[in-house]
Specification:
Layout (H helix, E strand, L loop, with lengths): L6 H12 L9 H26 L4 H4 L3 H21 L14 H32 L8 H23 L7 E3 L4 E3 L2 H24 L10 H24 L7 H32 L1 H15 L11 H10 L4 E2 L5 E2 L8 E2 L7 E2 L4 E2 L2 E2 L23 E6 L2 E6 L18 H8 L12
Antiparallel strand pairs: 1-2, 3-4, 5-6, 7-8, 9-10
Length: 432
């Protein structure tokens, strides 16, 4: 594949001149664009591999890494389609590249533009469903709009495949380009505009959701970038259908498309990926604090942040302690069991009112005589079950409470005194 002025390329220029067009030769600027974007997508591939490898890191997990991996793959399909449809390479004598419908419609439009747009929309709709409709992030209710959109896109592709190439997109041999008539371009851009208007509407509705999942800044930036690019591309493609003849316009069109898609992807994934690589523990602690404030920490594997729990013990910050050493952080939901020392793990019950959760109620019961306390004879372990997985970390004995402390009722003066100072209770201050 040549990027210099050959005899074949000169014939293309002469044929365009006979039709009244000024065609710029495919040159080294096109090669520089292809090379630059290829390097960018190669680096993105490494980022996707790193993201999937660390997909259980809670801040990354909250960004739907599987969907974002497929979104990056769709951007690659879009790039492959742009190389062909925007005339950056010679198509002649290549069966694959001269298949303008296959590459231009199915790869570029359906697998590329429409798929990446629908995946971003699916992420936003999932957050809307959870935080505005109080429904789970699963099931047919979540994926049905996505499937409907995919069916509409598939119907669009089938219709385009059945219609005559002169109506949709066709290969012009004398000019060695794929040409798309203006009506078909208008229909395509209308479809994309509707998709991103939906994305913008959903993100506007979820702009004030819980801080751990709030992406208002990222998505406002993403929607701004996309609408700027859509406005430019729509104006260019509809007002200058022969933009591929101009090297300046075809390079500008492709560059803006893929700079924009990369800005959107990195606006969503850049912060968690960067912190996972360079600031893993400190960022996770900070993120876990936000998650705890939102009452959502039971949804994620926070075993790496249980050390934060120990520091909370020492500062007595928003913690409840029961005599059988059962602990629970306010705002947690679901079924979580915590036990410290030799006591038996107790279930902590949280009363649920619709989508809201009442303050924790801790059931205080005496330790079983079958399992006496052995504070100084065994390691002290905080255990939790999150998503069916058992987590644990050795905390030593942060309480230093005498084994003889009896069970008390939550409304008794002794228990209130115990809550106020759980670390330094006099051995003879409580009567048995």
């Amino acid at each position: 594949m040549s990027f210099s002025l050959t005899e074949t390329e000169q014939n293309r220029i002469d044929n365009a001149a006979l039709l009244g067009y000024n065609l710029d030769a495919i040159g080294h600027k096109d090669l520089i664009l292809i090379t630059t974007l290829s390097v960018i997508y190669s680096l993105n591939l490494l980022s996707v591999i790193f993201m999937l490898y660390n997909r259980h890191y809670p801040p990354i997990k909250s960004k739907s890494p599987i969907l974002m991996a497929f979104a990056q793959l769709s951007c690659v399909f879009w790039f492959i389609g742009d190389i062909q449809i925007n005339g950056h390479v010679h198509l002649a004598n290549n069966t694959i590249l001269t298949n303008c419908k296959g590459i231009g419609i199915w790869v570029r439009v359906l697998l590329g533009v429409c798929t990446v747009s629908s995946l971003i929309a699916l992420r936003s709709y999932g957050l809307y469903r959870v935080f505005r409709q109080n429904r789970p992030y699963r099931g047919w209710g979540l994926y049905m709009p996505f499937f409907v959109y995919c069916v509409c896109t598939l119907v669009y592709g089938i219709i385009a495949q059945v219609l005559s190439p002169s109506v949709t997109v066709e290969y012009i041999q004398s000019l060695d380009i794929c040409y798309c008539p203006t009506p078909f371009r208008a229909a395509l851009y209308g479809y994309i505009w509707v998709t991103w208007m939906f994305v913008a509407l959903v993100n506007w509705k979820i702009r004030n959701i819980k801080s751990s999942f709030n992406e208002s800044r990222e998505m406002a930036f993403s929607c701004f970038v996309v609408f700027v690019i859509l406005t430019f591309s729509t104006a260019l493609h509809l007002s200058k259908p022969t933009y591929v003849f101009s090297q300046k316009f075809r390079i500008l069109s492709t560059a803006m498309d893929h700079i924009g898609t990369n800005l959107v992807w990195w606006a969503i994934m850049g912060v968690p990926l960067g912190n996972c690589l360079f600031n893993r523990r400190r960022y996770l602690d900070k993120w876990a604090v936000k998650l705890r404030e939102d009452g959502l920490q039971n949804e994620y594997d926070l075993s790496d942040t249980l050390c934060e729990l120990q520091r909370s013990f020492e500062s007595q910050d928003d913690m409840f302690f029961a005599n059988d050493r059962t602990i629970m952080m306010p705002g947690m939901r679901g079924t979580t069991v915590g036990a410290v020392g030799g006591g038996v793990s107790r279930m902590v019950s949280i009363k649920k009112h619709g989508g809201m959760f009442a303050p924790n109620r801790i059931s205080v019961r005496p330790p079983s005589a079958v399992f006496p306390r052995r504070i100084h004879q065994q390691q002290q372990v905080v255990e939790a079950r999150v998503g069916g997985e058992r987590l644990g970390v050795d905390l030593g004995d942060p309480f230093d409470i005498p084994p003889s402390l009896p069970a008390t009722a939550v409304n008794s003066p002794q228990f209130e005194e115990y809550l106020n100072d759980p670390f330094n209770i006099p051995r003879k201050s409580v009567q048995s």
